[in-house]
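## Example record

The block below lists the input lines for one assembly entry, exactly as stored, with component labels intact.
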Amino acid sequence: MVMRMDQLDLRQFDVHTDLALEAKEMAETANGGPIPGVHSDIVDEDGIKISRVHVQTEQGSRAIGKMPGRYVTLEVPDLRKGDTTLQDKVATKFAQEFETFLEEAGVNKNAKILIVGLGNWNVTPDALGPLVVENVMVTRQFFELMPDQVAPGYREVSAVAPGVLGITGIESSEIVLGIVEKTRPDAVIAIDALASKALERVNTTIQIADTGIHPGSGIGNKRKGLTRDILGVPVVAIGVPTVVFASNIVNDSLRMLEDHLAKHTTNAGSQVMGLMHKMEENERLQLVREVLQPLGHDLIVTPKEIDQFIEDIANIIASGLNASLHDAVDTSNVAAYTH
Amino acid sequence: MVMRMDQLDLRQFDVHTDLALEAKEMAETANGGPIPGVHSDIVDEDGIKISRVHVQTEQGSRAIGKMPGRYVTLEVPDLRKGDTTLQDKVATKFAQEFETFLEEAGVNKNAKILIVGLGNWNVTPDALGPLVVENVMVTRQFFELMPDQVAPGYREVSAVAPGVLGITGIESSEIVLGIVEKTRPDAVIAIDALASKALERVNTTIQIADTGIHPGSGIGNKRKGLTRDILGVPVVAIGVPTVVFASNIVNDSLRMLEDHLAKHTTNAGSQVMGLMHKMEENERLQLVREVLQPLGHDLIVTPKEIDQFIEDIANIIASGLNASLHDAVDTSNVAAYTH
Amino acid sequence: MVMRMDQLDLRQFDVHTDLALEAKEMAETANGGPIPGVHSDIVDEDGIKISRVHVQTEQGSRAIGKMPGRYVTLEVPDLRKGDTTLQDKVATKFAQEFETFLEEAGVNKNAKILIVGLGNWNVTPDALGPLVVENVMVTRQFFELMPDQVAPGYREVSAVAPGVLGITGIESSEIVLGIVEKTRPDAVIAIDALASKALERVNTTIQIADTGIHPGSGIGNKRKGLTRDILGVPVVAIGVPTVVFASNIVNDSLRMLEDHLAKHTTNAGSQVMGLMHKMEENERLQLVREVLQPLGHDLIVTPKEIDQFIEDIANIIASGLNASLHDAVDTSNVAAYTH
Amino acid sequence: MVMRMDQLDLRQFDVHTDLALEAKEMAETANGGPIPGVHSDIVDEDGIKISRVHVQTEQGSRAIGKMPGRYVTLEVPDLRKGDTTLQDKVATKFAQEFETFLEEAGVNKNAKILIVGLGNWNVTPDALGPLVVENVMVTRQFFELMPDQVAPGYREVSAVAPGVLGITGIESSEIVLGIVEKTRPDAVIAIDALASKALERVNTTIQIADTGIHPGSGIGNKRKGLTRDILGVPVVAIGVPTVVFASNIVNDSLRMLEDHLAKHTTNAGSQVMGLMHKMEENERLQLVREVLQPLGHDLIVTPKEIDQFIEDIANIIASGLNASLHDAVDTSNVAAYTH
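Predicted structure tokens for the full assembly:
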């Protein structure tokens, strides 16, 4: 057994998380402390936890398996409860964070924006992107058709849902590149549903990143990314974890079990959990996968209430985008602009 | 009143029909006979009436208000009855006609095809194009990823639903042009929901045309077209009338009333219908519009059973496309490839 | 021709309108004045026209072809424009009217209510009832499970969508009667999509009636009704016209044409319209039907924007019901309680 | 720790499985052998595993936590692959099994059937019942309206989807009882989405039971059942697991881990897994729950492809019901009768 452990390929990205925050936490646990080249801070405001992770070096990037760049994560554990007042509060907070984030990413007040909703209409946990596109306010047609009559406080925004490879036969990045070349936006905002390693982050977390969308990320497993290199303009990504691998649920539960035992008993951890107690998290995850995958049990799952969750969080993001992109839309009451 | 009649602008396209067959019939009625430069023939096979209209000259084009080119129309009055056996028969006939049509349009057996589903998911009578895209078989990804392993009898097909201006902020023709430039198909097949001037043609008729999609046609009122000139490759259009203007219902009914009276009585037409009896169809339509439009009554309507109709006819077209585009899909049993 | 006219069966209910207001107007036109036994008044408040028709006698009932009882109609021509501020205003006004109406119908503040959403999920213009049921607030389960803990200001409300005969094989009235006998509500509120004779009333009009639902009314053509006689409790009906017969569009347009001609010219009516000018509206409608029906042209149609209309008006009614049924829900801000 | 173990309430139904087959397997594992009073046999036909579990005594019932009665389970691991040929085969096999099952349950060839689709339209993994109702063939209206004209080979079938408590305010069993009393069917067939304890059974398994639906079973957590006692007629239940508790995924994985270790090493189980190795499955599950539940992590999850799964399996069941209920529908080609 020990020998097999040594042979495991402990690549970080194998963890199946699209959240930089989770990748950083796992790397820190493995490392026993902070990762050089990765800076982070956390604030907790009114039930909304905001983490800022800055991957500053290539070394840091390799250590956590995420691209260099800035990642802002909003965590709202109560978001699953369907409280509309909280939803409005989150939309407002998201709008404020996103407005600041755009500025720091060099996307100015008048930059023309193309919003790209990645994912598949027909797969509920993958429908976030298309749903945001449907609910967001687009203005480009007015700038094109009657530029003199657009009220102040609005900028040029367009939005597309390029579909998925299985339905179109075309990589979404190729479709988006074609549209970018025709319509010449100054920046792209890409919305995608993500995988988390922890079930509790599903549908309670929003990640903003200035790194774009990378191959293999998200539910749909793109083979090509949406990045500044490919599209020629800054790409800001907004992602929400909506699914998790069964193996991650198991592994995460074993970690919680360990913590639970550590709190309640002395040396019970090793008694109850045996060698699993001493394994690194990555090792244990690999072990779980070795068992589940050949049996076809490492399914990707989503909470049973996913239909309502997706609708709620798509509205939060669409409202937040409207408020952060247009000065004329007030961040104090963003919800009125979507339905 | 008479004076006003003289001032009417009797442009053909004012009739609000996207069917060349209807435009031709109206022009013939007005003209009292065939239109020079417009050739047509009709065959009736087994409950499916197939009309071929060839607009051969600019003169013919102006006379009927449709672009020069070939138009094939399948009319199946019983299609509204929801008979699945008839639906399969129509899919098979459509596949045969479409295969021949492609050849005559210079699109050869191995031509790479991009299918474009115009219209709006959220407006049932305008959802035909997106629904066909969702149900059609796409193969381009296999040709791209594992070209050696694609079975014989298939060609490269991709499919996109570019959305509508009100949701994307971008003309669908711009989106399609961007995708065409990236993916280089040899031909485009564009599916669109149309307006008919006669309620009985709604959801019972399929038009195939080699003229592409022109500004102002279809439900969504494009401002830019999808044509060979714009896209650089042949564009074959498939359209199904799903809506009709209220004014056309009224006008068409008056024509039927006239026919009815003519059959049943002598000179009753003028007695019962007065001057309307003598008006040209276009004049009468203008009169009806003059009355309805200022009151906001010239609504665009669709049969109340539209949800089922759209689903059925989208399946017919998707099945037909699969059979006509891939030799490996048998025209005798096309329905099995869609759901 | 004249002879045939004499033979027409001019039954009022042939007009295919479920609106008492329209039936009354037609009867008055035919009668050249008010109908004995039918009292009505109209107020116009802030863009919302409210008509109250009281059919007081059997004679009046026969004359207009509607059951004796009270009918309140809200007409809001601008409702089709999708203005959310107007929608909130209409919901509030509807709530006020409905609250008063319930009281006058003898349904008191604490009466237990069963809301019945008639119609078919899968036919958009017939989906009003089920959509209202989905959006309305139900409380009966709390009264059953924890009666002591229900906050003041709420009453017991339950809601069902019984489906349609073609899908269930059971008359909706049988299903509702079964549920009424089990759950013993004090009153039933039934929501149904209706047919209007005028296209402009489609999706702009709400009718409240204390007569229940009668066989043959609504889109789904019930064979049995939902009435006090059948269910044993008061039945208040809420209806919204969402469809119209093509023949009614034609006939209504001819009437408008007549009015138009009368305004613009002397004796042009008879010149332009011939005998149709002199026909009674019912006669003319029968003539139009004689022509359209044998050709299968007398389809029932709905505006092409029906998807959005139905969603908007279902929200208005659900919000209005919440506010009028529960004191704790404020009529000044009813929209917050639905989504 | 050991003390706490003793205190655990090891009730079988805590396992959160609605499948008798799983309950029996767990009881056998705990018991180290067959359970007295529970008879079972298994056949494997052509990729479809059919288990028949007969709970014959009260003792057996208590031991496995399921009602006395017959349970037939079809397991088709490949059902998730979306192969339409396999789906047709499963529909046919299900139809044959169900036909036999009905006979053995004393429901004869001419018995009038009410099909009840439990669950919630708006929650995808709970939408199985309503979807089957929508796709199944109903005939009762023809027997009521034109009994002489019904073709031979059909029996009287009706179908309702009573909704869920949160939307209607009424227990589904009350609604069904009301309808049963009005329409007097000879038997009820109830369709419901279930919870499994093993992720691999989700969407691959169909259970048929003559015990009806019991409180707390299914996704919607009914408080009242649909049983012969309550409804007065035999109730045959058809269930498909569509969800699983996260704690069951963890526990099931630990069991697989144990098996894996046992195969690959000597005494590694106790080394790697510590005390967990020796725990009874129920003990371990309780331990996992103790950890997950307070943290809100014991979510109910469903595979991310649930939308397509539910649609496919609803079609299988609807097709199978059509074939088994009507002699005129051929079991060799059942799929043609649904869409």
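Strands of chain D lie at 38-45, 48-55, 69-75, 113-117, 157-160, 187-196, 205-209, 235-245, 300-303. Residues 84-104 of chain D form the longest helix (21 residues).
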